[in-house]
Design goal:
This protein is mainly α. The chain is built from 7 helices and 2 strands, in the order ααααββααα. Among the domains are: 76 residues, Winged helix-like DNA-binding domain superfamily/Winged helix DNA-binding domain (Arc Repressor Mutant, subunit A), CATH 1.10.10.10; 36 residues, no CATH class. A two-stranded antiparallel sheet has the order 1-2. A hairpin with a 7-residue loop joins β1 and β2. It starts with 11 loop residues before the first helix and ends in a 16-residue tail after the last helix.
């Protein structure tokens, strides 16, 4: 069974998923943030099959997330370096890690803590804010079609506007360790 492609879908989330591919891809990018650059480093860290790793690295290069750099003699050894587009995934990986820390591991059981190199303090949690920096919740938001929207996303937005107002959410005790 082949994976559905999102090339033609006019949606930012779908296009991000098309560029990133699957869970291996984000783990490869994660390891690049931690300094992995060579094929063998990714392979050892992840325990991923060579053919899958090779395909994912090529995918990341094709989508401009990694740059393949000649690091040996006459093209025999290569390193993979995050591009500016790849480095922009830091926020995505941080959001995923924070979600997992909260809802999978539970507070006090985080496997990794990020700190500001300059101050040594833990980074502040990511949040969605308004123009003045106030934190917004899901119910505070509404979507409007953007300038590049095709009919499908416009229809999704119209459906969302005609639905009932957001319901009040009750806390879900789904965190491990609670």
């Amino acid at each position: 069974m082949t994976r559905k492609r999102f090339d033609d879908m006019n949606c930012g989330v779908a296009q991000a998923l098309e560029a990133l591919g699957d869970w291996w891809t984000l783990l490869i990018v994660r390891d690049a943030f931690f300094g992995a650059r060579r094929f063998g480093e990714f392979e050892r860290s992840l325990g991923i099959a060579k053919n899958i790793l090779s395909a994912r690295l090529q995918h990341l290069v094709t989508h401009g997330i990694f740059e393949r750099i000649d690091a040996g003699t006459s093209g025999e050894r290569f390193e993979y370096q995050l591009t500016q587009k790849g480095e922009a995934l830091l926020t995505v990986l941080t959001a995923l890690r924070e979600w997992s820390d909260e809802w999978v591991f539970g507070r006090g059981n985080e496997p990794l803590i990020l700190k500001d190199r300059r101050t040594g303090r833990r980074i502040a949690p990511l949040r969605v804010t308004d123009g003045e920096g106030r934190t917004l919740k899901f119910g505070d938001l509404h979507a409007i079609p953007g300038p590049g929207a095709t009919p499908a996303p416009k229809q999704r937005v119209r459906r969302g506007r005609s639905s009932a107002p957001p319901r009040k959410r009750t806390p879900t005790p789904s965190r491990r360790g609670d």
